[in-house]
Specification:
Helices cover about 25% and strands about 40% of the residues. The longest helix has 12 residues. With about 90 residues, the protein is α+β, with helices and mostly antiparallel strands.
Length: about 90
């Protein structure tokens, strides 16, 4: 398995709807580490590290977020695994 890192920018109805907590639950289910934070423009930034296959599954699950959240767009920048995080926080 290959480890990786992704910087993810999510746009849509993703603030004040529990989206970061939703990301945390998925990350923990998939043994991924990182963080999610609200951006001033209404989006959410997620930095996630772990097995590349698990990150792909994470992306698929957040793409399909259900009401009240609504994901309109996801931008992903892949990077090198840095082992920077011990948990997933928001």
């Amino acid at each position: 398995m290959t480890k990786g890192r992704a910087l993810i920018r999510v746009e849509g109805r993703v603030q004040k709807v529990g989206f970061r907590r939703f990301c945390e639950k998925i990350a923990k289910d998939l043994d991924l580490k990182g963080l999610a934070k609200n951006l001033s423009d209404g989006g959410v930034e997620v930095i996630i590290e772990g097995e590349r296959e698990s990150i792909e599954r994470f992306l698929e699950r957040i793409r399909n977020a259900r009401f009240p959240a609504k994901v309109d767009k996801i931008d992903i920048n892949w990077g090198e695994f840095k082992d920077e995080f011990r948990d997933f926080n928001w």
